[in-house]
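Posting here for the record, re: nicotinamide-adenine-dinucleotide.
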Amino acid sequence: MTPSVNQFGMQDPRAQYPAPPFPRQPQEAPGTVGAMQPRPDHGEESYMGFGRLRGRRALITGADSGIGRAAAIAFAREGADVALNYLPDEEGDAREVVALIEAAGQRAVAIPGDLKDEAFCRDLVKRAVQELGGLDILVNNAGKQVSQERIEDITTEQFDQTFRTNVYAMFWITQEAARHLGPGASIINTSSIQAYRPSPNLLDYASTKAAIVAFTQALAQQLGPRGIRVNAVAPGPFWTPLQPSGGQPQEKVQQFGASTPLGRPGQPAELAPLYVFLASQESSYSSGGTFGATGGQVLF
Ligand code: NAD
Ligand code: MG
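Prediction output follows.
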């Protein structure tokens, strides 16, 4: 397992976590945390909360693994109750997150289901609101990424599924949630450095991530007058199941993060404080922004 690092101890960030080369590790989408070598750090051992989200109610999609798991752990340790969505196949990973949320003394509401389905997306929000007694924080984080070298290799089915998962679901869930969010609420959408610096093998995926930035910017202007903030997070390479399960070719997984100035991929635990910041009142004047965590790669 990746050694957990005290989140506040000063140290060289290059040496803080594992750097490439990594072993070959193909797995089927959507992938699991347990199959990753080295095991990612989601802050299980290290994240320390200070009550920054006390009493808040959050819905996080893709919360079973990766960036969403790190946000879920951090939110719970900051005092929030969390409803989590994931695919039914990911129940094993989700159970670990539920246990971590409950160990932090907070409520966890597990709502598995496929976000490509509009009816499910709307029901997801209704169930989260009902079970949590309302909603204050929405994190649209679930994502699909399938690497293809040539445009001819992207099927309409892939293109459609990527847009449904990354863009349509965000629209359906946010539209439904907007009926319940009040002043002080925060929406956080997971975009990517791909929105600004698209890789040739991620044509469809990068397009969805650019759409997420525009959606965030337009919605922030619309919801600002209602006291609701909307921001995007743009990660660089992060060590999550998305990448070895078809998100990148295996050679790229083995060298993942090597070309960043810090020389390694980020670990989900290193993004959690950014999600907490954007969810909390500490970021009260930040809306419509895109916040990067790219290991030194130029975002824009
Ligand atoms: P991850 O595989 O751990 O999380 C993605 C999650 O999306 C899955 O766990 C799954 O629960 C969910 N998902 C996918 N399709 C779904 C569907 N049809 N219905 C319901 N849930 C579905 O990987 P991650 O890297 O933590 O991904 C989280 C977000 O971060 C994604 O939006 C991804 O695009 C974005 N991102 C990741 C990186 C990276 O390098 N890992 C970089 C930039 C942005
Ligand atoms: Mg997962």
